[in-house]
Amino acid sequence: MSSDASPQPYPGDPNQPPPGAYGPPPGAYQPPGAHQPQPYVEAPQPPPGAYLPPGAYTPVPLGPSKNGRGRGPKIAVAAILSVVLLAAVGAVVLFKFVLNQGPDPAESFPATASMYVELNLDPSFDQTPKLLEHLQKFEDLEDYDDTNELINGFVEESGIEGVDADEDINSWLGRRHGLATWEHDGQTYAVLSLASTDAGAAEDGMAQIRTAAGVEADQFSYTVEDDHVLVVLGETGADDALDAAESEAADQPLATSDAYSEARAWLDEDQLLVHWIDMEAMGDLAELTTGTESEAVKDLYSGHVIYGLSAFDQGFQLTYRMFGDADHLWTGTDGLLDSMGEQPASDLAVTAYVPENIDEITQGWLGFFEEFYGVDATEETATEAPLTDAEYTEYMELDTQYWEGTLAAEDEARYWELDARYWAAGTEDDPYVEETYGPDLGEIESVLGDFTSLLAGATLSGGANFDGDDEIDPDSLYFAAHLAEERAQELEELITSVSEGEPLPEGVEVDGSELSYTGSAIADGTLAEDDRFSDFAAQAPGQCAVVAWVDLARAAEEHPDEFDGLEPLSAFAWAHGAQDGDGTGVMRLYLKD
């Protein structure tokens, strides 16, 4: 059950919460200050015949992440702890399963958070059995008998000393957790909310984890509540930031913010993972942490985005929506999936609609691209001095220490100075000032303008089959461009000019508004005849802009080495389009039966 799923009548003991009753329904969040964490209680037993996976489950913990540079092995150990939860999500859920409901993590974070991730390993009686069934198909997830063995393995491989997985982690960690990035007092912090089933055990476990990580309270600060643990990680000032985060969340939690609540209400189905991003805040955060101007990013896209990962009968689904301040430019068109279904049943297929306002879209992309294009072809002077031989040797030594985690604090400034100069200007023996990264922007803009004038309103499609020797079988290749006007001959001439006079392959046909190529061994049948594709088409946006299809089972047959351990994968599909002016899309990963 998702964090905002509508509660269902529960016939059991009214003093006990129904399974998965995590929080209020969409649009009915508690007002600021009204939320009180609920203490953990034993969940009622499921009715006779209800699905009950074997064992019981508790996920692994998050610890401090490496937010700084060159802090050495202490922060590296903390970083390992912080990623264990996400790294282990797939395997852990196989082995332990209890209804340890936790509070909505979004209630614990300030409304000014720039990014939020929620991991819910018990979303519902519908989702969890599907997740268990899917994950059991992977051989690597059958190597562990229980969660304790899994967590012990992670702790052992990470080199952490002084942490007992059972006593310090499994004894209290619940199954619903959140992670956010948040800016406070000019610094960026990671804030975590970890569901807890035993406040006393959590207090002892967190103290031991912080001691083992070798960090101070101003880098790793936490507070233990009845049903969750709130953690703040940063370079300095984490203890003060923790107080500020608690205070702001009490008055204005993320869960009640207009942007997040709007997005979460749209993503109304049960989700294993929810990822929400405030794009403007992330742009400000990037500028704060890296010094890079964020206006180009904000101009390209503003608003907020939400992603949701769930399990369905045949695999996993990722659904997303981009809540923009302006209408989404790539609007798509009706019937794109129907036309794609008529294409040959190739292992790899792509179809895209080129909107009539493609000129406007490309201008926006070019504005963004210009900010990061690099050294211009006509530029002959570097903004930084290239490294001398001695400086390059010094830089390589410091770089090795940085990646090994042994860089001394007093050498950090020198390392980053040399690093910036190296990547901006190179070395005296190999300077970057005469390097070029392609044609100048004016040439790119001119060529794109020629293409967009021809392709506006067109539908492009193509596909091919995998081949064990050449990766793609050239004889199975097909391509078609259906233009809005009868200008296919102009398109052929433009492609020939861009390819410096090289003629198009034999077999290309030009007929009025269509330019096409069909290989001698294209796939038999159509994509619509594939049950997986038909199932996916029913989930895609009504107006699609681009659709991609990859038959992973065929890819594994032709390239088994690249798919070692991934044999259960069957197909991948993605469709992107628009809904009420917002960009939206669906990705599906199909597994074999």
TrEMBL record:
Transmembrane annotation, as ranges: 75-99
Residue segments, region Disordered: 1-57
Sequence ranges of Low complexity compositional bias: 30-43
Entry keywords, A to Z: Membrane, Transmembrane, Transmembrane helix
Compositional bias segments (type: Pro residues): 8-29
Protein's name according to its UniProt entry: DUF3352 domain-containing protein
Species assigned in the record: Glycomyces luteolus
UniProt lineage: Bacteria, Bacillati, Actinomycetota, Actinomycetes, Glycomycetales
